[in-house]
Amino acid sequence: MSARGEFSSRIGFILAAAGSAVGLGNIWGFPTQVASNGGAAFVLVYIILAFVLAYPVLMAELVIGRATRSNMVDALGEITGSRIGRFAGVWGFITVSLILAFYALVAGVMISFCLAPIADLLGFDGATGWLMADLSSEQAISRNILFCGLFMALTAIIVSGGVKDGIERWSVRLMPALFVIILLLIFYVLSLDGAMEGLKHYVLPDFSKILNPDLLISAMGQAFFSMSLGVGTMLVYGSYISKNEKLSTLGASVAFVDIGVAVLAGLLIIPAMYVALHNGVQIFAENGDYIAGPGLIFAVLPAFFDTMGAIGNFVALAFFALMIIAAVTSSISMLEVPVAYVVESKGMGRKRSVWLIAIVIYIMSCVIALNFNALFELVIAATTVYSQPLLGLVLCIFAGWVWKRDKILDELKNGDPQLEQGLFWKIWPWYIRFVCPVVIVVMFYRSVAS
């Protein structure tokens, strides 16, 4: 094992990388995308595009990471042999740090919403109201800052343990727990009145929409961004993979797990929304679309839990525990990106680096919390709408056009000596060079235009 750390097992990497990809967006974004875009027809298109488009970019990050055994800044500097590569790396870790800053705020609210049912069961009505306050309200500022700090501390504790004893150790515990909780909630929700109507909207395909340009572009976006691509998390995780592992298989396994969680989230969320509708809760926005994003998690579902009586507290507790797990498995990968850079390029010890960077990001979160209405959506747009797709485009250009093809092949043949004769090598280099950049440009233009 190298001094900088490696994943000790194949399953450890797969669960850690899948945990990075499985975040809050999978659970609150994917299901409503499916329900609004032809049900199972969208799922089919999403799965196809996940492997045709997102998987090749995922492989690019993994190959760059394992070949260079470096953080994002040094890795991109090495394969390009220029300051442009290093600049892209710095841009990446700044972007991922800003994403973590607003992500930690939302995850902190997940913790408070998870504690609220306990406070309610104990009869602490005042505490329950404070814990459940609207994310953007004046009343919520102190709560947001407190629980954001708690979430960042939890993330820092895990990352400070290193690759094997921190990231891998917790990923192999948290990801199975996530699957168990989501399956239990699915079985329970499907037993309630109204659930079958939601299930029909989710699983019955409307093939008339399958060639709709909006559906195709939405599926492209969901497939690409749900795998945590473009900001260096997969690149850094790839740098911790053993040279004996077959990268193409590992990447496919991560994609399968990520897709599986997204599909399971749909089996939970859409039936739950229709049970909520059956119980008198509004699930549609004024324009007729399903309520998605934070509105779904912080308004629709809590109102649904309230209609369930005493059992609603236990269901809410399990649901928000699920959301916390999804948030933590993503946040540890995001924090690792700047930490890896500081440890390797600046020579600072891991624990000191982790806590220093966590504090800086927490301060950024506090600034956003204190100026919520002005900064929250602005930071989200700057990072996920603009910066992340452009970084993905840069990675495709580096892997497809700048980095020498024979070096890529040599790296991929580690753990897979026969790769050159296989289908992967016949297709992947052309996809990453021509197809993926065009698709990312199209997605970026659509996002900016809309």
From TrEMBL:
How is it placed in the membrane, per its record? Multi-pass membrane protein
**Which GO terms of the cellular component aspect does the record hold?**
membrane
Q: Which InterPro entries match?
A: Na/ntran_symport (IPR000175), SNS_sf (IPR037272), YocR/YhdH-like (IPR047218)
Give UniProt keywords alphabetically.
Membrane, Transmembrane, Transmembrane helix, Transport
- Can the keyword Aminoacyl-tRNA synthetase be found in this entry's annotation? no
What Pfam families does this protein's entry cite?
SNF
Q: Which CDD domains match?
A: SLC6sbd_Tyt1-Like (cd10336)
Q: What PROSITE patterns would the database entry show?
A: NA_NEUROTRAN_SYMP_3 (PS50267)
Asked if Transmembrane helix is a keyword of the record, the answer is yes
Q: What is its main location?
A: membrane
- Where is it located? Membrane
Q: Locate the transmembrane regions by residue number.
A: 12-31, 43-64, 84-104, 145-163, 175-195, 215-240, 252-276, 288-305, 317-342, 354-372, 378-403, 423-445
UniProt xrefs under PANTHER family: TRANSPORTER
- Return the protein name: Transporter
What is the taxonomic lineage of the source species?
Bacteria, Pseudomonadati, Pseudomonadota, Gammaproteobacteria, Alteromonadales
